[in-house]
Structure formats: C-alpha cells, structure tokens
Input
Amino acid sequence: MEPTGTVKSSVINLVKTIVGAGMLAIPYAFRSDGVLVGVLLVLLAASTSAFGLFVLAKCSKTLIHPRNSSFFSLCMLTYPSLSPLFDLAMITQCFGVGLSYLVLIGDLFPGLFGGPRELWIFGSAAIVVPLCLLKKLDSLKYSSVIGLFALAYLSLLVISTFVYDYSTDHYHDVRGNVTWLKIYDSKGLVSTFSIIIFAYTGSMNLFSIANELKDNSLANLTAVINRSVAIATVIFLSVALSGYLTFGSKTLGNIMLNYDPTSIWVHIGKFCLGSMVVLTFPLLFHPCRIAVNNLCVWFQMRRATALSENNSHREESGPLSATTPSSARPISLSVQDTESASLANSYGATLGQEEIDLEVGNGSPPVDMPDSRFYIITALLLTSMYGLALNVTSFATVLAVVGATGSTSISFTLPGLFGYKLIGTDYLAAGKLVPAKELFYKRCSILLVWFGIGVMVLSLYVIYAYGAE
Output
C-alpha cells in the first residue's frame, strides 16, 4: 500500500493515541503532588516519552527499508530470542487498555440513556468493528478528528468551570485545600506517580505512523513527535491545573465525578467521554493485531529454522544465524571487515563493517499479514475482548499491572534497548566515526532503560502495597 500519511494527519493520530480517558485522572494526581511537583512530573513524563518516541524513529532509519520498521523487526535484529516477550508486552498493554475502554462504555452510556450495560457494549460494535477492519492507521485520521472534538469539549468543560467558579467566588464552596509548592500527600504522590507517566503512552503506533508517512524523514518524524507531545502536554496541564484548582483536596479519581450529575453540560461531557473511548479503541486495536501477527511470524520462522537444521545438519547459534536460509530469516546482518568491526566495538556498538547490511530478505516486508490471517486475528481479538467486557465489571488491579509492565516496556525499556544497540550504526556502516551527539543519544538510551525499570518496580510496589484504585 502506498503511504498516504501527512505530518498533520500523523499528529492527529498520535495525539489521539496519547490523550485518552486517563487525562481525567491527572487532576487527582495533582491533589497529592501539589502544583509545583505535579507540573514537574508532567514535564518529566513528556520529555522521557518524547525521547523514547524519538529513539524509536531514529532506530527505524538504521533499516535498509525504513518503511518496514516495527517493534518486531527491531527486536529480531537486536534481541531475537526476546522478541516474543516484547510482543506479548505490546499485546498485554493494548488488550488490557482496550478491554477497559469497553467496560467504560458499559458504565457510561446506561447512566446517560438507560438500558443494560451489555446492550451498550454490544452496540458499540457497530462503530468499533468497521474501524478495526481498516488496515492502515492513517485511515483512522477522520475518526481521530471526531475524537479530538470530544476531547476538546471535555477540556473546555474543566477549564470553563474553573474560570466560572473563580470569577464568581463559587470555588470557596466546593474547593478543599490547595498546595502550590509543597507535596500534599507523600503516600499519594507515590501511588499516583504512574498516572502521569502512563498518560503519555503512545509508542505502540509510532512505527505505523513512520511507515505510512509520505515523507518519513527523521526531521518529519521528529516534528510529528514534538508537536504531538507538546499538544498533549498543553492539554494535560490545562485539565490538571483547572481541575485541581477548582476542587483542591476534594478532587476525585475521575474529575467528571466532581461535577453536578444533573447538569446538561456534564451529561454532554460524559457523552463526549464515551464517544472518545469508542473512537480511541481502534487506535489500540491496530498495534495489538500487529503484535499477534508478529508472534505468528516468529513461530513460523522458528519452525523454518528447525526444518533447516534437520535437513542440512548444520550447526546454528540461533534463529537468525548466518547459516539460516534467507527465506527463514527476514532480517540479517553480516560483519565483513574486521578493522571496521574493531572500530565499532571501540564505540560500544555491536556491528561494524564497510557496508553494514540491515536487510529484509528478498526485499519483501519483514512481517507479512495475509488477508486471511488479518481477518482471523481481528475476529478472535474482538470476540475475546467483547466477551470479557460483557462478563467483567471491574479489573482495576489487572489493569494496573498491565500498565506497570506493558506500558513501561514499550515506552521506555524497549526504545532504550534499541537505541543502545542501533544508534550510530549508520555512521559505522559508512566507515565514519560516530559523532558525539550520537554517542550522547546512545548513553541517554541506557538511562531510559533504567528509568523504565524504575517506573515498573515502583508501580508494581504501589499495586502490592496500596492496591489499585
């Protein structure tokens, strides 16, 4: 398929991927953090997430065919034996959050229009299924625009309520304590830290955006990332500050619960929230389906490698060794020049030669998804997700574990590992010294890995110590 994405449409899809229902929980995090620490944590989350996205974009450029980039292709190039674990992390993240969205649909719409929750969950399939059948992420840009309008209304509702309450001094009646410079609740700070960090999760669709962008140069990808994260940060800070300064220490976990449930504006806001959730679901489903397909391809490759071993009786070191037939290994790289290899090792790189090949076998895409498999995976995933949503009303702890493991893996740990392995290899391939800036990115990639591990450990500790709310 020809690339059709533009910078504008890519920004729309990435913003919509990042900004979801979790936005409404950020004011609650500010209740514990206070204004200063809350703002600093938002900026920390924005900068680390943006760097993770940038590293993924930069690593995609090390491939001979950058439009074939994916988590799977980079995993098979750098850590082939761990590739299925990384895909499982992606599936866990997208499946868990998507399932929570279906449950949220069943919670929201019955309160607005009546009827059983099961009817609304099942009825959402009329919109969700056709959108999930679209093969290209760029095809979702129009539904993302509608979702952004719903998002804009929710943001304006929070901001306008804050402005109205302050202009009429009504905030004295509804607001609790507000802390500007100090931390209000240290225990709450630890337990809500992950709310802000996970709010920026959007890396699951970065490669699809890079592959479908007409001009997918690193400069264009960087522009998409910077603009998307900047827009998301403005939205998060506006909602967080307005919501927190309106209700102070009385801010609830979902800011919508603080507003008058009988107000027509709140009803419209809840409808917009439900609509936003329905339209965000396909953006999570798209990378989930890709990850499931990646697992299928990985098992096919393992089977082909095993057959090759039996037929040729040749000793192999792994699924992507030099003796594996090209048809069984979609990604290969060879080291031909020992002097360049020594130069690469001196810079901590793992590859070196006069011409480093990061090639896709026979010039074909590294991960193929035939139409039959596309529809089978789509049907199985949708059936399982809707089946669980119809029978489960609350799985807060499971969702918290999903965020702690899946979100940190795809946002920080994986990008950092890829960056450490691949950044600078394009210079080595041309027989050039790695510039200081590239070495800086490589070192920062390692810091990103440790940051992701730290966030995961802290989040799991919070789940164990305090429980998921």
